[in-house]
Design brief:
- The chain is an alpha/beta fold and about 500 residues long.
- The protein folds into two domains: about 300 residues, Glycosidases (TIM Barrel, Alpha-Beta Barrel); about 100 residues, Muramoyl-pentapeptide Carboxypeptidase, domain 1 (Orthogonal Bundle).
- Helices cover about 35% and strands about 15% of the residues.
- Helix 2 runs parallel beside helix 3 and helix 6 packs parallel to helix 8.
- The longest helix has 17 residues.
- Pfam families: Glyco_hydro_18, PG_binding_1.
- InterPro entries: Chitinase_II/V-like_cat, Chitinase_insertion_sf, GH, Glyco_hydro18_cat, Glyco_hydro_18_chit_AS, Peptidoglycan-bd-like, PGBD-like_sf, PGBDSf.
- Keywords: Glycosidase, Hydrolase, Signal.
Length: about 500
């Protein structure tokens, strides 16, 4: 998500000039899911702005965790801080999913940790511990800049993470958008024949409940749109809806549309535009920085000029770089170009989500600096059904082919009981012993295959946890959360 670039403070908005048309708020739109990320570096402002608007959200994602070199988690934003406590409580009260994000962009560290089975399990345990300790509704995985060689290891990580927490916790995945090759290259002949990707869409869709595409930071990647739209006006958008549609349609070829979320931005970029030094006669762009909408509208007021709606669907503002109020030495003869995503640009993506039939939109970012007209837009897409934050357990049970408890055909004289304490994600012979006990006592781990009677394994996955919870529930052990400890052990030994 390139989250490091968004720390520039911005504050002023032109309310009348850029207000969303009144007809927009009166329109009734198709209900879609809406999620939003709140960055830890502006957590107080973000929480303050989003709490009154939670009724328009299905899920909220605190940008909270980073990853250490050894694969363990670091709370960049403390869950015990007052604003996060407030947000978590408000989300729970309104049935909004509270799903923190784990951010990781160290390509080498990601590869090293995920390819090593021991380190990978340690990483998964670190995530699972936080999810269950703080009773999150799930976790959002945002691992960016991965190598192509990391692809199979990342897929295996998602599978094992789903095994560890997917039984009743949401596993959300945030990944880069993929531009169709015929839009990235000037001709069919110029497309490399050995292209490899870092993300396996099919594997990701198998293990993730939602797949959020970062369909922003488009820039100049789409050569076709550059040529078609960049002749009459500056064209270097955060996200043209036409480009977004291309990327999402490509993803829909491998990922069920009901899992897809379209990422939408609430910010913009400032560039210097100048004649290319290659002699091509085309314009070149040099990116300066990212900004929130209030920064651009403030400049518009100071210079006495009005932004216009560009052919990308975003607002753009252009003026001679020499007139910029920013204390930056401009390039000679450069034109300053600001392009940003306001409420109308976001509405275009929400309408696209409804038209394509995908799950919804994911907003990056909510930090108090977004277009204030955003809330009126989101209110149009609210569903009428009650929201439920907790992931239904039955969905996972059906996928793991776990049966309800059955009465064993005959009493079992002696069945061993595990001697150690452990939980989801554990490996070893004690897990096999637990599975044998559960199968023997009628709480089948699985009907057939791994975990079934005679095919017990050494891995404590979702099916084992489901069977253990059934045993605990039947024996009135509380809390019945699938943790094997002294209370459960004593109950088994007494039978």
């Amino acid at each position: 998500m390139n989250y490091h670039i968004f720390r520039k403070t911005v504050a002023v908005f032109l309310i009348a000039l850029f207000a969303v048309p009144a007809t927009m708020s009166a329109q009734t739109s198709t209900a879609i899911e809406v999620s939003g990320w709140i960055p830890y570096w502006r957590s107080e402002k973000g929480v303050e702005s989003v709490v009154p608007q939670l009724g328009s959200f299905t899920e909220i994602n605190p940008f909270m965790y980073t990853v250490k070199l050894d694969g363990t988690l670091n709370q960049a934003g403390k869950i015990t801080d007052a604003e996060w406590v407030t947000l978590k409580s408000a989300a729970k009260a309104q049935g909004v999913r509270f799903v923190p994000t784990v951010m990781w962009s160290n390509s080498d560290a990601i590869d090293e940790v995920l390819k090593d089975p021991v380190q990978r399990q340690k990483h998964i345990q670190s995530i699972a511990s936080e999810v269950f300790r703080y009773n999150y509704d799930g976790i959002d995985i945002d691992y960016e800049g991965k190598y192509a060689r990391t692809r199979p290891h990342f897929s295996l990580f998602l599978k094992e993470l789903n095994d560890a927490i997917g039984y009743n916790k949401w596993v959300m995945c945030t990944i880069e958008a993929r531009t169709p090759l015929d839009a990235r290259y000037s001709s069919t002949e110029s497309i490399p024949t050995d292209i490899e990707y870092a993300n396996d869409f099919k594997e990701i869709s198998t293990y993730c409940d939602r797949v959020r595409f970062m369909t922003y930071d488009q820039g100049r990647i789409d050569l076709k749109l550059n040529a078609a739209k960049g002749q009459s006006e500056p064209y270097i958008p955060v996200a043209d809806t036409e480009w977004v549609e291309k990327a999402i349609r490509l993803a829909m070829q491998e990922i069920p549309k009901e899992k897809i979320m379209i990422g939408v931005a609430t910010y913009g970029y400032e560039h210097d535009m100048f004649p290319s030094t290659t002699g091509s006669g085309k314009m070149a762009y040099s990116q300066l920085w990212a900004f929130n909408p209030g920064y651009a509208t403030d400049i518009a007021t100071k210079l006495g000029i009005a932004p216009v709606r560009g052919n990308s669907g975003e607002l753009i503002l252009t003026f001679p770089a020499s007139k910029s109020p920013e204390p930056v030495i401009p390039l000679p003869n450069a034109t300053r170009v600001l392009s940003w995503s306001d409420a109308e640009a976001i509405k275009q993506k929400a309408d696209l989500a409804a038209r394509l039939g995908v799950r919804g939109i994911s907003i990056f970012k909510i930090d108090g600096g977004q277009d204030p007209n955003l809330w009126g837009v989101l209110a149009q897409y609210k569903g009428s059904e009650p929201r439920v934050a907790t992931k239904p357990i039955s969905l996972v049970l059906a996928q793991t082919d776990t049966a309800s408890p059955v009465t064993p055909a005959a009493p079992v004289a002696s069945v061993k009981v595990p001697t150690k304490n452990f939980e989801m994600g554990a490996l070893g012979e004690d897990v096999r012993t637990l599975q044998k006990y559960l199968n023997a006592k009628g709480y089948q781990v699985a009907k057939t295959g791994a975990g079934s009677p005679g095919n017990e394994t050494t891995k404590f996955g979702a099916a084992t946890k489901a069977a253990l919870i059934k045993f605990q529930t039947a024996n009135k052990i509380t809390p019945a959360k699938g943790y094997f400890g002294p209370v459960t052990r004593a109950k088994m030994q007494a039978q």
